[in-house]
Amino acid sequence: MGGGAKRIAAQHAKGKLTARERIDLLLDENSFEEFDMFVEHRATDFGMADNKIPGDGVVTGWGTINGRAVYVFSKDFTVFGGSLSGAQAQKILKVMHQAMKTGAPIIGIYDAGGARIQEGVESLAGYADIFLQNTLASGVVPQISVIMGPCAGGDVYSPAITDFIFMVKDTSYMYVTGPDVVKTVTNEEVSHEELGGYRVHAMKSGVADGAFDNDLEALTQVRRLVDFLPLSNREKPPVRESFDEAYREESSLNSLVPANPNKPYDMKELISKIVDENDFFEISKDWAKNIICGFARMDGETVGIVANQPQVLAGVLDIDAARKAARFVRFCDAFNIALITLVDVPGFMPGTKQEGGGLITHGAKLLFAFAEATVPKITLITRKAYGGAYDVMSSKHIRGDVNYAWPTAEIAVMGAKGAVEIIFRADMNNPAAIAEREAEYKARFANPFVAASLGYIDDVIMPAETRRRMVRALKSLKNKQISNPWKKHDNIPL
Ligand code: HXC
User: 3-class secondary structure for the chain?
Assistant: First the structure.
């Protein structure tokens, strides 16, 4: 009963489930094995010696999701606001250690008010111990954080180190310092929602990878995500029986790319038409929408998809898009998930805002992530692949294993108009000459065949056969083995 019936009722009144109800929904029925139900805090100051609640504000243990083991901790807001005591930290660390030893994901459910104020430094030490374990677990077992209430102060940095953060709309918020501190320090008046609600983190800052309508939806979606992932970096991703024909032709794709190169189309249509059963789990779908990242399956095998979205900012690469995709690519590489990259990109976003914001460094993250990745990498250029963005988007030159292009692909340093304006500047006052030069440039470069003649594109394929060609390519790469030079770790441009 955690903090008792009254506090549980208050929790429900806010539209939130309790820590235990959440675990029940996350895990397979009756699969939860609880640890440390009898642990209590050890504080004595401020009347705490007589104020103990068994379990002390977090429910921990393990269970299964569709039969596969995961370790869980779920903060109980009804017990001292879920705040972290030294004892609570030990409970969380215990399940983290078990997960690491056995090779199973860690799922943390957050609903807490930060450090246990009555405990002081013992609580701070507990946080640091957890941060260290999160760091050591990074790239070893998948770590998923679900924010289902307050997540303030010390609580934010553990999720921040994990692989994915999901929030619940309107009932969750995350910030390093709350509205009161903000008011004192900067004199700015903000609500919890304005400071750290899902609109901030799932749409603007990119801190969260998604937001769901309520607790039930969030937990159901986490179950769906876990199904795509291997349990640890020692495993290949799970293979699910596919009910979709592996070599299915999709003739509607032949007319997906509009004749006018400036007209957008929806890259998600291509994704849903080539993956198994149209099933695509999108990551950060409301942030940096000019790039799409997510998991799907091809003939039963998990793949990570990275795709430019011509419908948003013409699919340009900017700071946020590069950050979003780089992190996703690195996750896939860490967990042996093959990458499919769908390219329609006019280049990097020009402008003082982008350059001033460090586009060079952030863009380099994506370049670095693709270049270092050793998992199978399949690339398809559907239309534009201009300039540096051509190189970055898993090109042959940075170890793309199979690189395809549709006949509509245009692989060039830049679009014809921009190119002609630079190399034929002297003709600028002669529209007829400029039009002729543009047509000449287009005829020469606005196609995939120059790149294909150099071997940078392995084949020019018909859109309808994309699924078949990719499924076959993935099968051919199943036993791919390459490794990077020995190093302690790399130095990605952070
Ligand atoms: C001990 C806490 C607590 C905390 C809440 N409670 N936060 N107890 N330590 N940090 C208790 C309350 O006393 C209350 O107990 C119950 O939890 C519910 O809290 P309410 O305030 O009534 O709930 P609500 O109005 O929903 O507000 C939630 C809240 C607020 C916004 C999270 O409680 C709050 O601001 N808490 C303090 C947040 C904070 O400053 N934390 C420290 C951050 S510093 P009863 O008995 O009445 O039910 C930090 C440093 C770590 O974390 C850095 C490490 C790197």
Answer: CCCCHHHHHHHHHCCCCCHHHHHHHHCCCCCCEEECCCCCCCCCHHHHHHCCCCCCCEEEEEEEECCEEEEEEEECCCCHHHCECHHHHHHHHHHHHHHHHHCCCEEEEEEECCECCCCCHHHHHHHHHHHHHHHHHCCCCCEEEEEEEEEEHHHHHHHHHCCEEEEECCCCEEECCCHHHHHHHHCCCCCHHHHHCHHHHHHHHCCCCEEECCHHHHHHHHHHHHHHCCCCCCCCCCECCCCCCCCCCCHHHHHCCCCCCCCCCCHHHHHHHHCHHHCCEEECCCCCCCEEEEEEEECCEEEEEEEECCCCHHHCECHHHHHHHHHHHHHHHHCCCEEEEEEEECCECCCHHHHHCCHHHHHHHHHHHHHHCCCCEEEEEEEEEEHHHHHHCCCHHHCCCEEEECCCCEEECCCHHHHHHHHCHHHCCCHHHHHHHHHHHHHHHCCCHHHHHCCCCCEECCHHHHHHHHHHHHHHCCCCCCCCCCCCCCCCCC
